[in-house]
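User: Quick one: structure for sequence A, then sequence B.

Assistant: Sequence A:
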Amino acid sequence: MQFHVAQNGEKTGPFDRDEVYRRLVVGELKPTDLGWHEGLAEWEPLSKLVPPQAPPLTASTPVFAPAALPLHPSAAEAPGTSGLAIGSLVCGMAHLDDSVEVVRGVFRH
């Protein structure tokens, strides 16, 4: 559909809907400027003819990923975990592994 636009007494166009929308977004046109397309009896405000909405996606439209979510819901509620606590846990597990090897060695002899 092709639109004609009347702005400050000057008529321009025809423009396709996407071009009118683009011009509205960047401020070249105002929602109160008048527009007309075939089939209309009278000129009407562009806000009525091209209501605000998301423009069509194109190859240049940026797509944003949602923010990273915690792996487990309780992780978001947990108080801050000390790096020292995690280090102690890892060292304890490593020591336990060494102890198991010592015990295995005792039973092998």
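Sequence B:
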Amino acid sequence: MALWRLPPDNPCLKLYVELRSDDASVVQAKQQLTLGFANSACSVPGKWKRGCQIKFLFNIAVQRAGGWREQEKRRFFRAKVMFDRAQGGLPVIFGPLGASGNTTTAASREQVPLWTSNGEPMQFESFSNKAFSVSISHTQFKDALRYVAASKMFSPMV
């Protein structure tokens, strides 16, 4: 597991991934980029306590045989949270990468910004040689934690 410490003068996490394929006919069913955070100060040696981790799943490709109707694509444009029972209730925030410069918001009433895309948007068709990039500011990360807590408590964000 890699641990990163954000410099205090630039508290923004940037993630850059470039996917390459020599075969343009390759079709993806669903492709996601995963980013996980673990609070090591919260853990017990050899075991992670509940509430010490969070995971982000960025949708970079969703492919459906037979194509898409526009209204079907809409459900992929907001971020949602789930609690993965197979991983002890680990909170997982998942959603799309928008066009470069666009911010993905939570699918809650408050629609808080959770991350900003700096590269290619999520793809609905086959593709090759695309560069996906995302950044999460310190404020966005704190809002993501508030979104998870509100979702767990079934209450509005405070």
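Residues 1-5 have pLDDT under 50 and may be disordered. The radius of gyration is 17 Å.

User: Thanks, that's what I needed.
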